[in-house]
Design brief:
The structure holds two protein chains of two kinds. Chain A is of the alpha/beta class. Chain A is built from eight helices and ten strands. The relative contact order of chain A is 0.18. Chain B is mostly beta strands. Chain B has one domain. Classes of the chains: A alpha/beta, B mainly beta. Chain B: InterPro entries: Fe-S_cluster_assembly_SufBD (IPR055346), SUF_FeS_clus_asmbl_SufBD_core (IPR000825), SUF_FeS_clus_asmbl_SufBD_sf (IPR037284), SUF_FeS_clus_asmbl_SufD (IPR011542).
Chain lengths: 254, 428
């Protein structure tokens, strides 16, 4: 059993106009096996939380802490966080020229596990996972994300999630830009990744529709860099009916 | 995504026999040697060989060629073919007598392949090439002897132990001239490696004559010590149904400028040109390719890839392909890709395609320069891959496409090691 604990996290970015605060004191605890949905309007800081956990250099942590089983995550390099068991499925996966999917997956798996995967079982695992996510076999020979459609990029993220078996998965708007079929395929992949019920999931989304497939245990509503309300799955239903209007300042509603 | 913004892509392709919007007179796509340029005017045409009346001033076909250095005006840096070259770093190759000691020649070869040192009046010299710039002509005028490597007719030298390696070791920094002639006789099959090492200031002419039905691979490696200036005009003549694979590898030196030019002597010729370069801080690596399709039914493929790292690392790739009116059935494609690994490096990439007939199989070109940026690094690191491994993964993958074309395992291994060394040096 592992715990990812975020305490009073303040995060800013440097802009041309100076320092801009984005997260304003976020606290959140996720245990193994739990699925937390973070919902909220655009610009509320949801993706900043995801990128900060993964260690993106753009985001400056001004105060607060992130720990994984008591270990200081903020003191770890980006690659060390991944090896410690954190996985970020990115909203906008980047193209990596010259590196094939096969080569990339094997290199990453070797880095995460600290040893090369057994060739025969690995090849089969990759093939099976690709088939289940309806990724064409020829993608294995293509360069990472190069020429992939939006949906293909998202499926490639979930392929990694299934193969790398992290302790905690952070899914940053994995559902955005997917049609209903693709959303179902991707959701099934996330559910498979948590088959034994030991993976903690932080599901960041603007919409409620992915929550029809992946049932959250907790729902947190993000507004202006902080958690404005939290509750169980019923909160998501209410958001679907009412939208985010009641959380927004009166000026924005006008 | 920042990479997409930084990537400039130009491409054009056609696979139809008759290109729409183009008559049999063809179309001028190139802006090389505009009328105003020193090489584009009447003076150029009055000296040019093989360029008769009706060649437009802007065409690559109009470029001055001559064995006499005096025919070429002094280089100012404003000329199309010199505009990227830092002339000071030519260290006199365009100006002074090239009377320094030429690189020494050492050869490892199978018994059947012969090597000779011949005088400049040998009948073979000049049979495959003619200088098309002042530095090349200066070397032509200055050399007293040339090294001739001959692959006998019908020779089967495909296996690795039959590779001919000519090691050319720089003999110091006095400006020098050098001449190499590689002769593949009819229906032979061989691999010749020109391995440039040491320290030199040298203008070199390489002639490559591939007789009818022969298959030849020539790999020219520039693995010079720092401070070297090397200009090399590599001119190839490809016979009927012959096939030449030409590989340029630029790894070391201060200024390295390689100009490979391919011409066809009969139909059915096939040229594959590959290039790999890895420019570090302050290095200038320039490669100017010319494929002259003047014979029907020949094929050319040009694929150059380069990585750059460090302040003022500079690469230049110019690919001129000319399909003349008589070259019906031509099939050509050229491509250049650059990967910029750090701030402060610069890659210039200029593909030029001139088509004078619409009756071709296909013609296309592509050029793209991308950056290994923080987002890519973050992506790979977020998958547990440490920064140095991530960088190696990307560069190795990018350049391996060229390395694997060489098909000489020992050489491929050496180049992979060289890429690793470059990456390690860049990390310091």
């Amino acid at each position: 059993m592992s715990t990812l604990e975020i305490k009073d996290l303040h995060v800013s970015i440097d802009t041309e106009q100076g320092k801009k605060p984005i997260l304003k004191g976020v606290s959140l605890t996720i245990n193994s096996g739990e699925t937390h949905a973070i919902m909220g309007p655009n610009g509320s800081g949801k993706s900043t939380l995801a990128s900060t956990i993964a260690g993106h250099p753009r985001y400056v942590v001004d105060s607060g802490s992130i720990t994984l089983d008591g270990e200081d995550v903020l003191a770890m390099s980006v690659d060390k966080r991944a090896r410690a068991g954190l996985f970020l499925a990115m909203q906008y996966p980047v193209e990596i020229p010259g590196v094939t999917v096969t080569n990339f997956l094997r290199t990453a798996k070797t880095a995460i596990d600290g040893e090369a995967p057994k060739l025969r079982t690995w090849t089969k695992d990759v093939k099976d996972a690709m088939a289940q996510l309806r990724i064409e076999p020829e993608f294995a020979a293509r360069n990472v994300n190069e020429g992939f459609s939006g949906g293909e990029k998202k499926r490639h993220e979930i392929l990694q999630l299934e193969l790398f078996k992290p302790k905690f998965a952070i899914l940053d708007e994995t559902d955005s830009g997917l049609d209903v079929d693709a959303l179902k395929v991707v959701s099934e992949g996330v559910i498979r990744a948590n088959e034994d019920g030991t993976m903690g999931t932080l599901l960041i989304t603007h919409y409620t529709r992915i929550l029809r497939y992946i049932k959250p245990d907790f729902v947190h509503v993000f507004v202006d860099g902080n958690i404005a309300e939290q509750g169980g799955p019923e909160l998501a239903d209410r958001l679907e009916a009412e939208g985010y209007d009641r959380f927004l300042p009166a000026t924005a509603q006008a | 995504m920042t990479n997409a913004e930084l990537t400039k892509e130009t491409s054009a392709a056609s696979n139809v026999r008759r290109i729409s919007g183009m008559d049999e007179e063809g179309e001028q796509l190139s802006e090389i040697n505009p009328v105003a340029s020193p090489l584009g005017g009447a003076a150029a045409k009055s000296h040019s060989h093989g360029a008769g009346a009706g060649i437009p001033d802007s065409s690559r076909a109009g470029r001055l060629t001559s064995y006499q250095v005096a025919d070429f005006p002094a280089i100012t840096g404003r000329e199309e073919d010199w505009r990227f070259t830092p002339l000071k770093r030519l260290r006199g190759l365009d100006k002074v007598a090239l009377d320094g000691a030429a690189p020494t020649v050492a050869v490892h070869k199978p018994d059947a392949v012969t090597i000779e040192t011949v005088g400049r009046d040998d009948a073979r010299i000049g049979s495959a090439g003619i200088p098309d710039d002042r530095v090349s002509a200066a070397a032509w005028g200055a050399v007293n002897e040339a090294t001739v490597i001959t692959v006998p007719a019908e020779f089967d030298g495909r296996s690795e132990e039959h590779v001919t390696t000519v090691t050319l070791t720089g003999a110091g920094n006095a400006p020098a001239a050098s001449h190499i002639f590689v002769h593949a006789k009819a229906n032979s099959d061989a691999v010749v490696v020109l391995d440039h090492r040491g320290s030199a200031v040298v203008s070199e002419n390489v002639e490559i004559l591939v007789e009818d039905g022969a298959r030849l691979t020539v790999v020219s490696i520039q693995d010079w010590a720092d401070g070297t200036t090397h200009a090399s005009s590599q001119q190839m003549k490809i016979g009927r149904d012959a096939k030449l694979k030409h590989v340029v590898v630029n790894l070391g030196g201060d200024l390295v400028r390689i100009n490979p030019s391919a011409r066809f002597a009969g139909p059915g010729g096939d040229i594959e040109m590959y290039g790999l370069y890895f420019a570090d801080a302050g290095q200038h690596f320039e490669q100017r390719i010319f494929v002259d399709h003047s014979v029907p039914n020949c094929k050319s493929r040009v694929t150059y890839k380069g990585a750059l790292q460090g302040k003022d690392a500079h690469s230049v790739w110019v690919g001129d392909v000319l399909i003349r009116k008589e070259a019906e059935g031509t099939d050509t494609y050229e491509m250049n890709r650059n990967l910029i690994l750090t701030q402060g490096a610069r890659a210039d990439s200029v593909p030029n395609l001139e088509i004078e007939t619409g009756l071709i199989e296909g013609a296309g070109h592509a050029s793209a320069t991308g950056r290994f940026d923080d987002e890519q690094l973050f992506y790979l690191q977020a998958r547990g891959i440490p920064e140095d491994v991530a960088r190696r993964l990307v560069v190795r993958g990018f350049l391996n496409e060229i390395i694997q074309q060489i098909k000489v395992p020992a050489l491929e291994e050496r180049l992979r090691d060289a890429v690793e060394r470059e990456l390690k040096a860049g990390a310091l």
